[in-house]
Design a protein that fits this description.
This protein has one domain. Helices cover 0% and strands 42% of the residues. The protein is globular and about 35 Å long. The model has no long low-confidence stretch (mean pLDDT 94).
Length: 73
């Protein structure tokens, strides 16, 4: 599947080196798509939202990457 503008994906946050904040998945909306599959995202979390650009894809959750939400059957 190819990402397109407006699709909902998951973004895995980095967390903090000292462990004060964990690396967590957050819902995100694709705001831009580059030819290599790298995307720009509008990331939503419980305490606010932010934009991040040049986010690479990962099949599994990996800090600083986006992935498709798992299928629920």
């Amino acid at each position: 599947m190819a990402p397109t503008i407006g699709r909902v994906v998951h973004y895995q946050s980095y967390g903090t080196p000292g462990g004060e904040f964990q690396s967590l998945q957050h819902p995100a909306i694709v705001t831009e798509v580059h030819s290599d599959g790298v995307v720009g995202l509008f990331v939503i979390n419980p305490t606010g939202q932010y934009f991040t650009r040049e986010v690479p894809f990962s099949e599994t959750p990996k800090p600083g990457h986006w992935s498709w939400p798992p299928k629920v059957e």
